[in-house]
Amino acid sequence: MIPNINYGNLKESYLFYNIAQKTKAYLEAHPGTHLYRMGIGDVSLPLCDAVIQKLHEAVEDQAHKTTFHGYMPECGDPSLRKTIAAYYQKRGVILSEDEVFVSSGASDELGDILDLFGKEKTVLIMEPAYPAYVDANVIAGNTIIHIPAGEENGFVPMPDPDVSADIIYICSPNNPTGAVFDREALQAWVDYANKKDALILFDAAYEAFIEEEEIPHSIFEIQGARTCAIEICSLSKTAGFTGTRCGYTVIPKELIRAGMSLNQMWVRNRTTKTNGVSYIIQKGASAVFSEEGQKQIQDYIQIYKKNGAYLMEVLNRLGIWYCGGKNAPYIWMKCPNGMGSWEFFDYLLSEIQVVGTPGEGFGACGEGYFRFSTFGSPEDTKEAARRLEILLRKIL
Ligand code: PLP
User: Fold this and answer.
1) Cα 203 to ligand 1 centre (Å)
2) How far is residue 339's CA from residue 8's CA, in Å, rounded to a whole number?
3) Peptide bond into 3 cis (omega under 30)
4) In the structure, which protein residues have their CB atom closer than 6 angstroms to any atom of ligand 1?
5) Residue 28 half-sphere exposure toward CB, CA atoms < 13 A
6) ω into residue 128 within 30 of 0, thus cis?
7) Which of 113, 181, 194, 259 is deepest in the core (most CB within 10 A)?
8) CA 370 to CA 342: how far, in whole Å?
9) Side-chain half-sphere exposure of 185, counting CA atoms within 13 A
10) What whole-number distance in Å separates Cα of residue 318 and Cα of residue 34?
11) Parallel/antiparallel/unpaired status of strands 167-171 and 322-324
12) pLDDT tens, 115-160?
């Protein structure tokens, strides 16, 4: 038996391992020190009341013969699919229920969706990038074209007509940079994909953090996207579902390649490879889209936004270049005085006990940049921002 030898091509992911090792060593050398953890990509607030109430109800349903649910439909509970389609409609995006697939989260889908594309595809990944895009494609044996982004384009690269690919990843709002693609940039990518017969995988995991009216939340707000895009979304950051697990994927019926409907292929894929998301979780997820749920999750998102504001105010006062923060839970700053991103990590840890994420861990062009997450506690974030300002004033 020969295993999938592509696993041998995966690069060891040192990023979070190294961070854990360095913080552990620091704590061993300085026992009892409190660390200000601004590196986390996980939420810190609990599920909102509306969701908790529905989860309790669903557990109770499972206790009685008359309300018990066994296997759920593989592509999602029809009422949740309808609810999600209605959520899109509020922004003028018309979807039919059977274009919405309920999932166990975006990570699962980002990997599984590659089943639709056959072997030896060319994939365009804009970097710095969420590491799972690269690894899923290495495992699938695809060829990756790395498109570096940088300060000159605000970390929002535009298509190059001389480059062709089968699959294009776009993440907006972006992890790690927090940058967003505006309507014009997305239109350019959609036109490019349609022209090249390519397919966009649009990762909208952070759409709920967008506050600027004119920034699209969905690729389907862009004309022509229904013939070239799949959207992958998650309730993880929107509604604190990182440990509860639910998301959704939108595959329009116009997505036809070689006479085959990608929507129908995904129905077949799901009915083969999953038995759906649990009844309890789907019922809890439905509450996210209720009027009450939407208000409650926005209250939580505003707490994270305020964390972002503490950090952005400091960077503004110091005149340090950064992007993100406004429409995303991440702030991507340029390391001061030409420091490398690991050098800056060590400096913050040793001087002010603040832990962030070195940009280099998200691709080579992230070197020299640093990511702060706004998912920490307000008290810690405020104190971290205060310490950062005092420290950087000394060296700038
Ligand atoms: N996509 C991006 C850009 C993310 O940052 C994350 C998680 O951090 C995910 C997808 C995964 O989300 P989920 O928890 O739904 O698997």
Assistant:
1) 8
2) 33
3) no
4) 41, 105-107, 130, 171, 175, 203, 205, 234, 236, 242, 247
5) 6
6) yes
7) 181
8) 9
9) 18
10) 25
11) unpaired
12) 999 999 999 999 999 999 999 999 999 999 999 999 999 999 999 9
